């Protein structure tokens, strides 16, 4: 699996300039003056050749993005390249609407780290043969019949599987760019655009 490098602060000197302007150990520096960073040496070169009085750093701290404006000088930090997987697969379990909402919320956080969804599949939940066999055996008593009817009517949680791909540095979205997400058709389980009123695969009409 291919990987990409990013710039991370692994140590920060106490009372250093970097600490005074808000940098913290563990911060990942994504951009310097709107230029996407690929490794620590690139950042050092940019700092060395920057003549501006102030520079802008786009920093990822946990799942939060923030901008730090500081004078272009030594920050007093130790930088290292970290590797991130090119392909990430995530699963969101729950009823279809719950799983899609969880995906939408997570897609924004993933986009901040340069990942965009490239494939989505929805799988309906299933009790499996074992569950139905147990329900059939319990049918000799009244509660078994109720369990069997419940299993026929109520479906267990399904799984929305989403594949995220790390975008090349030239194609990473700007921090404020909206993340376009889709929705899953309840009839054919294909992904269509969020604004679609009719599924282009099975012609299912979405309720607005």
TrEMBL record:
Pfam families membership: PDZ_6
Q: Which SUPFAM superfamilies match?
A: PDZ domain-like
> Which keywords annotate this record?
Membrane, Plasmid, Transmembrane, Transmembrane helix
Domain PDZ span(s) in chain numbering? 11-61
Q: Which InterPro entries match?
A: PDZ_6 (IPR041489), PDZ_sf (IPR036034)
Membrane-crossing residues? 132-153
- Protein's name in the database: PDZ domain-containing protein
Specify the species: Shewanella aestuarii
């Amino acid at each position: 699996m291919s990987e990409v490098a990013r710039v991370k602060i692994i140590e920060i000197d106490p009372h250093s300039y970097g600490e005074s302007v808000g940098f913290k150990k563990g911060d990942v520096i994504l951009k310097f003056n709107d230029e996407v960073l690929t490794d620590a040496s690139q950042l050092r070169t940019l700092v060395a050749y920057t003549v501006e009085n102030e520079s802008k750093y786009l920093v990822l701290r946990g799942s939060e993005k923030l901008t730090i404006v500081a004078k272009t000088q030594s920050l007093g930090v130790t930088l290292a390249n970290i590797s991130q997987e090119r392909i990430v697969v995530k699963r969101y379990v729950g009823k279809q609407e719950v799983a899609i909402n969880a995906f939408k919320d997570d897609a924004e956080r993933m986009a901040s780290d340069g990942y965009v969804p490239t494939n989505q599949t929805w799988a309906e939940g299933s009790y499996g043969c074992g569950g139905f066999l147990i329900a059939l055996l319990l049918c000799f008593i009244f509660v078994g019949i109720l369990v069997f009817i419940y299993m026929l009517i109520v479906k267990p949680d399904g799984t929305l599987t989403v594949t995220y791909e790390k975008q090349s540095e030239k194609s990473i979205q700007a921090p404020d760019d909206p993340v376009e997400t889709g929705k899953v058709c309840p009839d054919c389980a294909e992904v269509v655009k969020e604004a679609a009123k009719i599924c282009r695969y099975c012609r299912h009409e979405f309720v607005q």
